[in-house]
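Objective 1.3, modelling of assemblies. Example input:
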Amino acid sequence: MMDQAGNVVTPATWIRAELTLGQSTKDYLRGLITPFNVVAAAVLAVGIPVTINRFVNGLAAATNLTNNSPWGLWIGFDVLCGVALAAGGFVMASTVHLFGLKEYKPLVRPAILTGFLGYFFVVIGLFFDLGRPWRLPYPLVYSPGVTSVMFEVAWCVSLYLTVQFLEICPAAFEWLGFRKLRVWALWLTTALTVFGVVLSTLHQSALGALFLMAPGKVHPLWYSPYLPVLFFASAVIAGISMVVVESTLSHRIFHSQVAHHDPRQMDRLLIGLGKAGAVVMMAYFCLKCLAMAHEQHWPLLLTPWGAWWLVEVVGFVLIPSLIYAVGARRENVRFVRAASVIAVLGIVLNRLNVSIITYRWYAPDRYIPNWQEIIVSLTIVMVGLLTFRWIVNRMPVLRDHPSYEPAH
Amino acid sequence: MSVNRRDFLRLLGAASVAGAAGDSTAEAAPLQRVSNDWQGMLIDLTLCVGCRKCEWACQQENDPARGQPIDAFDDKSVFEQRRRPTGLSLTVVNRFDGRRPDDKPTYVKKQCMHCFEPACASACLVNAYRKTAQGAVVYDESVCMGCRYCMVACPFEIPAFTYDSPTRPAIRKCEMCFERLARGEAKPACAATCPVEAITFGRRSDLLALARQKISSEPERYVNHIYGEHEAGGTCCLYIAGRPFEELGFRTDVGDKPYPELTKGFLSAVPFIQVIWPAVLMGAYAFSRRREELSDESKPAATQPEQTGQQP
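Predicted structure (tokens):
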């Protein structure tokens, strides 16, 4: 075992030092009392009893789901938004490892960690939502229903979770000092990246294809035969934008981890992402309009739902796309950061629109989430953030490990 | 760098073309051939008097443990609200008042339509649904995960979920008394009980002929539409009525195409992505590697850009 400075230490001291980040236990615990942690503790204090209620008393006791609205916040937010916002992993990995834009390498590991944790907590969200979550492996091994788009989602998500686990392994192995295993894991990088892009293409689009079965239920402005393509394109936007959001936050929160980064170099990378974001979002904007025009839905734009559609497509797609473009052109990273936040909100809005807000738009009985559903979603996000922080504070994700050559 | 970005966009374009091409090639073979032996029910809404005896019979058959007395179904206040099948009542009757106050109301019994190509079955990722040789669409609780995608997919909003069960929540739906018929009974419980014979049980092809004959012999009594003949690709249950179906809570926008067709195009594009994507991506990889090698040869002393920023 080796510590961060490369000195050999015994496993016991290593574990102790890693758990408390090299501080005495007392100092470490005292250091935990921060405003963020107080909020986190408050969320967990409510979230844990709600979780118990969900599993002891069933879905009816914790959700407002009905026979007419079978999918609520846990599918609309935890699963659909979770998967889209975790797309940064495959976007950054392919940019660097396949398309050869090596300068973006410092952004790959944080993106892959976000992706891995994102998918992991999507599965946790599914545990809450499924009636019988213990049957999660059934579609894979016991009773496959091959005609279902959901079957494809199940396979791709479980395979991609495995791929991302293997992709993040080198960081864990560097931390643990497993040199040989690390070499093996790195050797897999290219193959894993290709596999990851294929799986992501398939399941990001499949999540949109799920709603192809609900033509009478999803509002016609959001229902389109192009749903799979729209979901995939917007997932790429979500991936790019989340990398910008996350690196902005990381640089505020984990100062010590990124002290060695040249801030101007990082800004240049974000501006590059802004350029990519502008182009992909503009393409997505055109696709959204094309899908609407293809179905001859122009008159619907004059209805209240049409106004809501314009809010999403203009306010949360066209405008951030232009802000990205201005940011890239003027090399102003603030514009890029602002655009990324709007873009992320726009993807969340889109997923909620398709799955919840416009679902059965004509019906008088509308689904509004139960407070417990909101608490569970918050709890899952919070545990995800805490896990991310725990890993980043210990493993070489934002920084390079001093005793290893930078990978590739 | 610019070359790569252009490549990236070109790849995106290829992906969207593949997706779009998939959408347009949706003409695939049906899940199961339409059979003349399929059974069904013809429900004549001009006969139904809204006595709810079918609801009682259905509960006796499918949920005997609940065993509400037949008088409990005399309660007409349920008609104040529009109901749908639930985990407790697999069939429900709704009342639709006439256009004028003195017109007689129309009562509409609602239950599974038993589609030729059921949306629920094609949506199920664990094969919990099956179209039997007799035509009924039946559900197997023993494999169901409770994902409720079938409920999203069903155009008639039939499958219901028992959300209140913490350990054994499941879908519940009409199975056209599949087990009861297997026991040798002649008709499903609702059809056997209906006091005014509004429900005719039999071979679907015979029922269609009967419906046509009824409409043509009394054209002033019926609208010229057999609901279920073509809806969602055809269903085993058929309805005839004295008023247009859109006035009676029926969805008339479900189209004539079987619902599984809606995702077939997407699913048929999957193998293409699986084959083409890795080839394209590996090509891009080889391309960028080669370019890197060439630039390394031309300026051997050049430092990699990422290493300058990364060294602590």
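Chain A touches chain B through 87 residues (CB under 8 Å).
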